[in-house]
Structures are given as C-alpha cells and as structure tokens.
C-alpha cells in the first residue's frame, strides 16, 4: 500500500519509494556550532551609541519560536567595544564588551525566533576607540529529510 503524489511515492510506512525531482529538502534540528547562515564582512563603529551594523533576515519557512545559536566576533583598537544581538529592532541578546585588540568570539542561544525575523548586530564604541565586528553567524544542525534524484530503469 502506498500514497502517490505527482512527484513522490510514499509507502504507508512513511518510506519514500520514488521521487522525480532534483533537490534536497533540509530541516533545522537544533543548535550546534555548524554555520548555516552568515554575514562575515567586517564593520566598524566609532560612535558611543548603538548603531545597527549587520542584519540576517530569516526565511519564511522557519518554524515559529525556534532557538538559534548566534555568534559574532568583536574587537577594539584603543578602548572598549560593545555589541548586542537584536531581533527586529529590540535587544534580545546579552550586551558583550571587550578591550581586546584581536577578535573574540561571542556565542549565545536565543529563543523565540519566527519566520522573517531580522537578526541584527548593533555595535558601539567608547571615546577614542574604533569597534570592529565581523562573522555574524547563525549556527545549528540541518538534516537532509528527503533527497530527490532523477533515477529509473529501462526495460
């Protein structure tokens, strides 16, 4: 017994018996350190008020209320630099700071992400300093749920 859709044959046990397409379907299965989305370019800020420097917009197919691991790198050149993760213009992450002149990586698991949300990195500096940030990354585990390939036989 099976159910047949125009491009997919699925048995009643849930097994994919045949498929007639050429694509992978991925599903997010949870937080990990594997990068799945990134905005890596370096940005700088000399102002002492937070300024939005990076944005990653989530796709429309993400399931509501997801927990995502978000990472970024931050450094200073002469004083203290600050950065914080925002969602759609509102702070949701912990304020991070450093006086290091080499990049430090900050990581945080943040809940409540929904389709089309904007993950934003805001950065500010202190007087006489340039704050630098890069590598805004969304990390998690993606698993292949269906691998469709054009296959067949001749007789």
Number of helices: 0
Rg from alpha-carbon coordinates: 21 Å
How far do the termini sit from each other?
Answer: 24 Å
Regions with little confidence, pLDDT below 50 for 5+ residues: 1-6, 147-155
Provide the helix percentage: under 10%
Biggest sheet layout: 5 strands, antiparallel
The SS-based structural class is mainly beta
DSSP strand tally = 13
Q: Could you report the average pLDDT, rounded to the nearest whole number?
A: 82
Overall 3D shape: elongated
Order of helices and strands: EEEEEEEEEEEEE
Percentage of residues in DSSP E strands:
over 45%
Overview of this structure, please?
The protein is an all-beta fold and 155 residues long. It is 0% helix and 62% strand. Strand 8 (81-87) and strand 9 (90-91) form a beta hairpin. Strands 4, 5, 7, 11 and 13 form a five-stranded antiparallel beta sheet that branches. Strands 6, 8, 9, 10 and 12 form a five-stranded antiparallel beta sheet that branches. Strands 1-2-3 form a three-stranded antiparallel beta sheet, with no helix packed on it.
Short description:
This protein is mainly β and 155 residues long. It is 0% helix and 62% strand.
Please render the helix and strand layout as text.
Layout: E1 2-5, E2 8-11, E3 16-19, E4 23-39, E5 43-45, E6 51-57, E7 66-75, E8 81-87, E9 90-91, E10 96-98, E11 104-113, E12 118-124, E13 131-148
Antiparallel strand pairs: 1-2, 2-3, 4-13, 5-13, 6-12, 7-11, 7-13, 8-9, 8-10, 8-12
Main attributes of the structure:
single chain, five-stranded antiparallel sheet, disordered C terminus, mainly beta, 155 residues
């Amino acid at each position: 017994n099976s159910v047949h859709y125009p491009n997919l044959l699925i048995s009643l046990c849930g097994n994919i018996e045949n498929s007639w397409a050429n694509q992978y379907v991925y599903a997010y299965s949870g937080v990990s350190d594997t990068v799945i989305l990134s905005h890596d370019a370096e940005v700088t800020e000399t102002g002492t008020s937070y300024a939005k420097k990076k944005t990653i917009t989530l796709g429309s197919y993400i399931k509501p209320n997801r927990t995502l691991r978000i990472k970024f790198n931050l450094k200073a050149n002469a004083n203290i630099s600050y950065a914080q993760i925002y969602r759609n213009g509102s702070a949701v992450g912990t304020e991070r700071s450093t006086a290091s002149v080499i990049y430090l990586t900050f990581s945080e698991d943040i809940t409540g992400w929904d389709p089309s949300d904007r993950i934003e990195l805001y950065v500010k500096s202190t007087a006489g300093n340039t704050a630098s940030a890069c590598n805004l990354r969304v990390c998690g585990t993606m698993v292949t749920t269906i691998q469709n390939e054009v296959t067949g036989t001749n007789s």
